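Memo to structure team: turn this sequence into structure tokens by end of day. - J.P.
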Amino acid sequence: MAWGSDWKAAGSSSSGSSGMKSPVIHIILILLVVATLVVSSLALMTVKELKNAVTPKTISVEDFLKKLTTHNELKSYVGQAPLNIVQISNNNYGTLQTQINGLDISYVGSYIVQYSDRIVIYDYDKDQLRGTVAQLPADFVTKLSAHSELQGIQGQQPVGGQLDQASLNTLKQQFPDVYAKAKVGDFVLRYQTKLIIYDYNADLIVNSVNLS
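Reply from structure team:
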């Protein structure tokens, strides 16, 4: 009898202890579930961030060209489809650098937009023109060299490019007399002994300055 009584008592004590532990176990399980959800959410956020960093975001071509051609230098290209659009990346940066003078690592992420007569470097995110490079017409050198201002320097290799609004504004502030009659689209060519500003469309030497 005593043994049976002790066994029953022990059984009752064990059942009571289990009853006390049950709520604690439930709380622990709930905390574990919450912790799992939090970890899963953080993992999903991390994966999303990685995907955004690795995968280029999709850009509407219509929106891209609309923003690009709102710039004064490119308003004449509204409605004109470019021949090619290439984004500068770490993969093609080295190759492009050998083809475009002045291209550095800061241009990664920008776009090279090629038209039939001009190449534009455009930062879409900042809506900023990083540069324009005119593709010279076939008769450019012939027409330019025929002017008397070029006599004696035709054999020299000039450095320069086509004026856009930003560069023209800066040059007019720095050298108002030299660029007083210059306009967007004119070519600035610096030879060893002369600076030539040339309007190709009008076949006109806008200004010729002797360099000391």
